[in-house]
Structure formats: C-alpha cells, structure tokens
Amino acid sequence: MRNEDNHSEVVHLSEAACNLKKRAEIRDSYHEGIRANSSVNFYFLVAVVSLLIYIVLVMSSGLKFTDIMVVQLPLVVIFSLFLTFMTQNSHSIAGYVTCFVFAVLFYLVDQSLSLAVAVVILTMLIIYYTNKIYHNPSDYRLGFPKIGGFRLKSMFKNSFVHLKYHICLSVILLVAGILIAYFYPSLFQSILQGTMQNLQQGASSITTEGLFVNNSSVALMMMLASLLLSIPTVYLLIFNGIIIGFVGVQVPLSTFLVYTIPHGIFELTAIVIAGAVAFRLTQAFLEIANGIINSKVKFSEAVHVGADMIMDCIIPLIIVIVFLVIAAFIEANLTVPIGQVLLGL
C-alpha cells in the first residue's frame, strides 16, 4: 500500500514537473515572440524613417521620385536592414564603420548613393538617442514611490545629467544639417538662394539687438514647438545646420571659419541647448499625458514627474539667453575686426 502511495506521489510530482516545464516553454515562447515582433518593428521603423528622410532631401533638389526609385531607395532599405541587424546583435561599431566606409566610397562615384547611406546612419542615431532619452536610468520615472530620491544635490548638475541625451540628439541634428549641406550642396541650391540673398542684404546692418532678437526668436520657436512633439524643433535644428553648411561651401573654408567661430561658439551652443530644452519639455508633457491616459499611473505622480522635468529646463534656459546675448555682441562688434586681423585684410 505504501509503495502504491509512493508511486502515485512520484507520478504526481512528475506530472507537476512536466506542467511547469510546459508553462516555462510557453512563457519563453511568448517572450521570444514579443522580442521577435519588437525586432521586426524596429527594422521596419528604421527603414521607413530612413526612406522618408531620404525622399524629402532628394526631392528638395528637384529630382523626381522615379529618378531614385530603382537604385537609391532599395539601397536605403538594404543599409537600414544591415545597420539595424548589426546594432541588434551588439555589433554597432562595426555596423557604423561599414556604413561610413560605403558612404565615402559611394561619394566618389555618385553622391545620391552616398547620401542614401548617410541618411541611414543619421536615422539610426536619431532613434538611438530618442530611445536613450526615454530610458535614461538616472532620470525621473513614473511608478517610483519616491521621485525626489532621484534628484542630485546640485541643480546645475541635475539639469545636465538629465538632459545629456537631449543635448546629444540636438547636436546630431544640427551637425547632420551642416554635413549634408556641405557635402551635398546641390540638394539645396534652389531652395536656399533666397535665404542667401537675405543674409547678404542684412549683413551690412547688423546690430547686437537685432541679432539677439533674431536668434532668440529661433530658440523660442524651438521651445514652443515642444507642444507639437518637437517636430518643428527637429526641422529648425536641421535647417539651421543646412544654412551653416551651405554658406561654408560658398566661401573659402578659412574665411568661413574665421568669420563664424568667434560668435558661433556661443550661438550654436545656445541653439543646441534650446533644442534639448524643447525635447525635455516634450518629454515632460508626454509624462503628464501618460498620467491622464494610463489608469495605472497616479495623475498627481505624473504631474510631479513632469514638473521636475520642466524644472530641469530653468538653468539651461538661462544659459541660452546669456549665450545668445554674448553671441550677438561678438557678431555685431568683434567678428569682422577679428576676421580682418586673422586674414590680414
């Protein structure tokens, strides 16, 4: 009798173990499916965003869609899939280096092919740093009971620790605009002629006040654009970079640098920080909206987190204003004399 009981107990334990194993397999299969779907979605996202950016850039130069449909667009898809695969499998550096090498080689043959690869690199960097912004482990987070525990003692350090990825994204967008316009100026020849004429006409009558008002209006528009998910902010950063890069092609590089660096150090830094502030404000608004939409999150906690994020923008905003004042003064009063001395004019 005891042997039968022991046998039935063993059978019962064996069945329980089998059930646990099956549940584990089902759970693992479920998570694998989620990861697979997530991976597919990521491939799709990179490819679609790359295609959209490339189409907008190329068609701005006057080319027709049919001119890029056969070779360039498939190339964008191929390299977006390649770079996504490399980054998904922990080979990011090798992937970026390979794409960069191909971009350089294609540049020697056909600039439109080179631009296709460059756009893929840009897209991946944008997505990477956007993801970093919303998954920064040192940032405030909804769902934590003690939000204040994540604050740093220094408000200055606190702001820039939380905005480091926002600043990186802002820098990438501005620099991307500069590089694209500098190496592919034909794309913007037609659309920037009017802008260049306006710059030349206004160059003779620049004042500190006028420059400050102009530059601060750009920074203000960037930050107000946070209400529109910072999409106009992205455009303004890239467009300002495009203007800088395009101007750099029109004059000798030494002349361009001499007449740009003195005030540009402060002006471009301010524009970059303004872009980062806009991204941060958008993040704050989304956190608050999450508290309204998501029933699992307390609205008061969401407001608290959003308010902390907005507070992070105070010191950067002050720096933007100070830097724009300095940049305006230097550009109106010192840039030309410094340039003339350095160039021996």
From TrEMBL:
Keywords: Membrane, Transmembrane, Transmembrane helix. The keyword Transmembrane applies. It holds the Pfam family SpoIIM. Signal peptide: none annotated. The chain crosses the membrane at residues 42-62, 68-86, 93-109, 115-131, 163-184, 218-238, 309-330. It comes from the Archaea. This is Stage II sporulation protein M.
